[in-house]
């Protein structure tokens, strides 16, 4: 299954910045209308929406709290009103286990904003529950739309996993758990492509510098480590919509790479200059440029320092 882009409509959560902004911008350049669903917009996103506010393809901003199921439902209503339908959905919004929702900064203790009486973590609401619910809403919309989704009228749902879906990092247990969950969720829906024409796939970016990186996380990246460009991740996300195979290398070296088959259930790792099809079982794991964080030991030390605080884990 491959989906033609021109004239289609996409809903992208978290498109106010980072990878999802780059994805929205690339979709617009390919003739796709985009509903940008986010709590706020960075200046570059505001400019993008202003540029595409009138002429086709258009971009529309909808202020969206992805932890609100009502807000998620509203994205489909608005996209249908503005563009007449929905063809591509990206539940891209996510957070990198910030201090306000962090396993090592328990609910009820500053700087956590998680309420010990609420029975949930914001990090998991955003990183797991939101993409699962938005996917559910997308499938519901696709199967009831006219014309109905089918292998000859395909639709796509593109998720953002991470190389941390294959790692176990003490300082980031909620984030790692959420990305493990996303990869498993995407693979569980693989069969929808052959039966209904709905492709559910994911990118698994390596280390990408975006606004979700806080100063306390940046200490893990040293001079010898390399960043992956958010634009490269966005390129692969578009490939997951419109192609059935891609080269394992970027740019000038693309012809030298092996071809990777892509489709429903695919999880494609995006490292520095190369791609990899992440296997469900017996996968060797991420390696090479763009996948290393040489200062991770400093975050481990920070965790053990927090555990020395008297009363850790007891709400104040």
TrEMBL record:
Keyword Phosphoprotein: no
Listed Gene3D superfamilies: NAD(P)-binding Rossmann-like Domain
Domain of life: Eukaryota
Signal peptide extent: none
The entry's keywords: NADP, Oxidoreductase
Entry keyword annotation includes NADP: yes
Pfam families: adh_short
Example of a GO cellular component annotation carried by this entry: cytoplasm
GO molecular function: oxidoreductase activity, acting on the CH-OH group of donors, NAD or NADP as acceptor
Family in the record: Belongs to the short-chain dehydrogenases/reductases (SDR) family.
Name this protein carries in UniProt: NAD-dependent 15-hydroxyprostaglandin dehydrogenase
Lineage: Eukaryota, Fungi, Dikarya, Ascomycota, Pezizomycotina
């Amino acid at each position: 299954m491959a989906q033609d882009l021109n004239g289609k409509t996409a809903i992208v959560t978290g498109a106010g910045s980072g990878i999802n902004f780059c994805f929205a911008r690339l979709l617009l350049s390919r003739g796709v209308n985009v509903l940008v669903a986010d709590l706020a917009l960075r200046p570059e996103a505001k400019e993008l929406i202003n540029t595409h506010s009138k002429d086709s393809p258009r971009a529309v901003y909808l202020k969206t709290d992805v932890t609100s199921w009502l807000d998620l439902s509203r994205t489909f209503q608005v996209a249908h009103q503005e563009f007449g339908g929905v063809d591509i959905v990206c539940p891209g919004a996510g957070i990198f286990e910030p201090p306000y929702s962090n396993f090592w900064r328990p609910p009820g203790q500053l700087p956590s904003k998680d309420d010990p009486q609420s029975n949930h973590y914001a990090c998991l609401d955003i990183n797991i529950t939101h993409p699962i619910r938005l996917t559910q809403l997308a499938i519901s919309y696709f199967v009831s739309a006219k014309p109905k989704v089918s292998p000859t009228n395909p639709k796509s749902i593109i998720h953002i996993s991470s190389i941390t879906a294959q790692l176990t990092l003490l300082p980031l247990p909620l984030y790692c758990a959420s990305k493990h969950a996303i990869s498993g969720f995407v693979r569980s829906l693989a069969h929808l492509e052959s039966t209904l024409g709905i492709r559910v796939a994911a990118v698994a970016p390596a280390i990408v510098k975006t606004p979700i990186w806080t100063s306390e996380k940046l200490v893990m990246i040293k001079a010898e480590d390399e960043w992956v460009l958010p634009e490269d991740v966005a390129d692969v996300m578009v490939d997951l919509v419109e192609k059935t195979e891609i080269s394992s290398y970027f740019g000038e070296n693309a012809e030298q790479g092996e071809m990777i088959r892509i489709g429903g259930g695919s999880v494609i790792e995006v490292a520095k200059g190369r791609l990899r099809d992440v296997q469900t079982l017996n996968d060797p794991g991420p390696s090479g440029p763009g996948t290393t964080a040489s200062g991770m030991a400093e975050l481990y030390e920070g965790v053990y320092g927090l555990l020395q605080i008297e009363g850790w884990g007891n709400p104040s």
